[in-house]
Write a structure and sequence with these properties.
It contains six helices and 16 strands. By secondary structure, it is of the alpha+beta class. This is 3'(2'),5'-bisphosphate nucleotidase CysQ.
């Protein structure tokens, strides 16, 4: 049996190859008016491209690692994943609404958990030619080059979050901190952008689905960012509900300042305002 580092490297190579092929499939549908519809219970849109990418990934990844569990936004729940030592955590297309609209900022988010911890991760934006990757005990990279977060303080920081997160009731004293709000359609990409310092933080007060953030969380951690839920606790993955109570991802100084300023718990992941 290979040593753990070797196994993680092999898993990362598997994810990188699968993400590249997923991008090729998605581009066949992008700006081609793909069939799309809304999921039940306000869970957002899905398209034929999401399902095609998901089918490829499940066949390819599970075919290669049949003993790994499977958790994907576009697959039926499989409780057996909770008993597996390793589990794939997949969002075939993160930013589906942007994809349907013909925007470039959608991604494929692929991760592998060992127990509750992510050990290999890839976030790939095929149209933009961006591939973020990390493995346990290794660096985080963008297109092969190491990345790291900024050292910004909260005043004037650029924070990737949705509009409602700046409402006063979420903040101590009823006043949002003096940061500059930005937005990108893919949550996985937002974590990566904070990881590389192009933006100073990624913040969500909403409970987040694991498939949206698993890969980005490891990439941010290995880049040197501080990564937690909105209570400051470490994120745990492959959980029964597949939810994390919000997220704060930033350089260590800004991360601490954001946590200190927060005054609210997470709201439902289905509550979508942007």
């Amino acid at each position: 049996m290979p040593e753990p580092d070797t196994a993680h490297q092999t898993d990362l190579a598997l994810l990188l190859a699968a993400a590249e092929r997923a991008g090729e499939i998605a581009r066949q549908y992008w700006r081609q008016d793909p069939v799309a519809w809304e999921k039940d219970a306000g869970a957002g849109p899905v398209s034929e491209a999401d399902l095609a990418v998901n089918a490829f990934l499940e066949d390819n990844l599970r075919g290669t690692r049949p003993d790994y569990g499977w958790l994907s936004e576009e697959s039926e729940a499989d409780p057996s994943r909770l008993d597996a030592e390793f589990c794939f955590i997949i969002d075939p297309i993160d930013g589906t609404r942007a994809f349907i609209d013909g925007q470039q900022g959608f991604s494929h988010s692929l991760a592998i958990a060992q127990g509750e911890r992510i050990v290999a991760a890839v976030v790939h934006l095929p149209v933009m030619g961006l591939t973020y990757a990390a493995q346990a005990d290794g660096p985080a990279t963008l297109n092969g080059a190491p990345i790291g977060p900024s050292d910004a303080a909260i005043a004037g920081a650029s924070v990737l979050t949705y509009r409602a997160a700046t409402e006063p009731q979420h903040w101590v004293g009823g006043i949002a901190p003096p940061f500059r709000r930005e937005f990108r359609p893919s949550l996985a990409w937002r974590l990566c952008l904070a990881s590389e310092g192009r933006f100073d933080a990624a913040l969500s007060l909403r409970a987040a689905w694991e498939w949206d953030i698993a890969a980005g969380a490891l990439i941010a951690e290995r880049a040197g960012a501080a990564v937690s839920d909105i209570h400051g606790a470490a994120m745990r993955f492959n959980s029964p509900r597949a939810l994390v109570p919000g997220l704060v991802v930033a350089g260590p100084r800004l991360h601490a300042e954001l946590l200190a300023a927060l005054a609210t718990g997470p709201v439902s992941p289905h509550h979508r305002t942007e």
